[in-house]
Amino acid sequence: MTLIQNEDLIQSVADALQYISYYHPPDFIAALHEAWKREKSPAARDALAQILVNSRLCAEGKRPICQDTGIVTVFLDIGMEVRWEGGMSVADMVNEGVRRAYLLPDNVLRASILDDPIGARKNTGDNTPAVIHMRLVAGSTIHVRLAAKGGGSENKARMAMLNPSDSLADWVVDTLPGMGAGWCPPGMLGIGVGGTAEQATLLAKEALMDSIDIHELRERGPQNRKEELRLEIVERANRLGIGAQGLGGLTTVLDAKILDYPTHAASLPVAMIPNCAATRHAHFTLDGSGVAELKPPALDRWPVLDWDATAGSRKVNLATIDSEEIANWRPGETLLLSGKLLTGRDAAHKRLLAMLEAGESLPEGVDLENRFIYYVGPVDPVRSEVIGPAGPTTASRMDKFTDKLLAHTGILGMIGKAERGPVGIDAIQKHKAVYLIAVGGAAYLVSKAIRAARVIAFEDLGMEAIHEFEVEDMPVTVAVDVNGESIHESGPALWRRHMAEQHPIEVT
After folding, report:
1. How far apart are the first and last CA of the chain?
2. What is the DSSP letter of 463?
3. Residues 6 or more apart in contact with residue 334 via CB below 8 angstroms
4. For the domain bounded by 314-492, which CATH number is listed?
């Protein structure tokens, strides 16, 4: 019989969530570095470099890898010989650990969880509650696996009920292009097979808790059907040419993990959930000896890259920008933005449009004429920061607002991550605007370009309030030009052709 204090689980959860907010798993860094070394696409190689540079900065500065510090998912295997010292439920202990982690003054994490999801959608303020899965198992310890999962990658989860004779690999490869780049590739795919619909999805999420080891599997060769499928899926997925951030390139998937469960003879439930470039998970065991200890990885696990944002980039002064200047920009071109821009995401867009359609004046300071709007929900600043990590959110969520907002306000351009959908692209082309992307998974690096920040409207929306940022040399890439041409269409198409024609490029 093992006696475990309530406080030991609470503090272990809090410590682990802080740890994963700024330390990538070493296996992920190693795989990403190898992908960077192999990459031949200049745009994808630059995106990979930014993610790696950002990761090292976060490890050194102990600040979040991504501004979306995630919804917490916890798997607990609780030994049946464990006894608790204290009167709290397991769920209450876990949620108290989440609360402590996300409100820690030295490294504030963004609260992203909304209560009443189909009603008021009010932020809980401390990122609780977590999604908790518990199993009673033999033994006298508690094994905990937890992750902080960003909304961009979670939104790309897919589930299907296949026929028993259908090909799992075909389904994955057919499904991936439709997921777009909002999950911030490259990352790992968690795949669940069997059981029932909900079991397959749970297995897919659990598979993401594993380490990247596809390189070891290649070296020794597959020993069963699941391992054969892993190799096939990774190879075929990367030949899609989607690449880092969807810009086109050699590496879209770093690994694919498969967990399965017995299923009905008439069924083949499958689910796929991607992990983004802010892969965050940790494992620890409580044995009654106290709070779990997570040892920081050595900084020499991170490569030191000679990344220069100014190389080949066009400098842009946001104070003097006009429609004539943006008409010269082309998809794939890199820019360095300096000047003032406004921020706004889903909730702010909805409120702005409601005001415009009601004939109301916009809040003081929200003048969008000839301005750029950045789709971001930043982390609160700590110490001397003007703003916390402030990477882009998925732009396609704003597509349904874009036409009306451009028509009413005269916005010149938008900045986000991943592709725009047909509705968004049509609006951009119609109004001769542009869409730029910043690298998802490089939030701390992006924040270094922000010299001043202030909330100018909708403060009650928290991280979704409208800010004014003053930026200096903020790195972005032209994703959709005034003619509606998208790098997220042309880039992957180019690299698919390269690989299909067996172009002399190393593909692994």
Report:
1. 50
2. G
3. 46, 312, 313, 314, 475, 476, 477, 478
4. 3.20.130.10
